[in-house]
Amino acid sequence: MESQKFKFMCFTFLFWGIVLTSGESKALPTAKLTERKAPKTQPQLSLDELQTQIAELGAQITNHEKQGEEVSRIKLANAVSANESIVAQYKNDFIQKVEAVGSRNFPEAAMKNIAVAHATIDVGIKADGSIDSINIQKFSGYPDLDKAAIQIVNMSAPFPRLPEALLNELDILIISRIYTFSDKSRTSAN
């Protein structure tokens, strides 16, 4: 019985990291805990896709802040629930007009020493085709280029009236685009 009691005590002490030998106690080496860091993951979206998403979300946040609790009648072209083909055609016509005006009127000085630059611009278009707002969501990094891009959009106005089918859903259509400026193509919208 006494030997069983001793074995139990040895087990207990072993459990706590101490070994009894002939009345002495020795500490067992303790295991070192190492922290494992999670492996770094690479983003699954391209830079252009991320920029587009950021621009669209920025415009949505701006719209929600402006409208507060009210139902917004200002919508991104990508957020219009009905008449997607009508919005797509209007957006395409808008882009073609801005690119045409930009190609003819883009100031050479704005592209001085710049091979390629990108800017994300939101343009709010009222029902009558006039511009409600122009917001640069992501600057190109070249102030003269950003200023020229806004000037080109203003020179392109007015745009065609918004189609009647859209006016049931919105008062202002926001077209958010990434504009690419290069010395070869002047300006293009993605």
**Total helix count?**
5
- Fraction in helix: 25-40%
Sketch the major β-sheet: 5 strands, mixed
Strand and helix order: HEEHEHEEHHEE
The total beta strand count reads: 7
Share in β-strands: 15-25%
- Under the CATH scheme, the architecture is 2-Layer Sandwich
* Tally of individual domains: 1
Low-confidence stretches: 2-26
Q: Note the gap between the termini.
A: 86 Å
At the first level of CATH, the class is Alpha Beta
Which structural class matches the secondary elements?
A: alpha+beta
Q: What does the radius of gyration come to? A: 32 Å
Global shape: globular
Q: Average pLDDT, to the nearest integer?
A: 74
CATH topology: Fusion Protein Consisting Of Minor Coat Protein, Glycine Rich Linker, Tola, And A His Tag, Chain: A, Domain 2
Structure in a nutshell:
The strands form 2 sheets. Strands 3, 4, 5, 6 and 7 form a 5-stranded mixed β-sheet that branches. Strands 1-2 form a two-stranded antiparallel ribbon. 39% of the residues lie in helices and 24% in strands.
What would you say this structure looks like, in words?
With 190 residues, the chain is an alpha+beta fold. The protein contains 5 helices and 7 strands, in the order αββαβαββααββ. The chain has one domain (47-189): Fusion Protein Consisting Of Minor Coat Protein, Glycine Rich Linker, Tola, And A His Tag, Chain: A, Domain 2, CATH 3.30.1150. The protein has helices at residues 2-15, 47-67, 84-105, 143-156, 164-167; strands at 18-21, 24-27, 74-76, 116-126, 131-138, 172-182, 186-189. Strands 3, 4, 5, 6 and 7 form a 5-stranded mixed beta sheet that branches. The protein is globular, with a radius of gyration of 32 Å. 23% of the residues are buried.
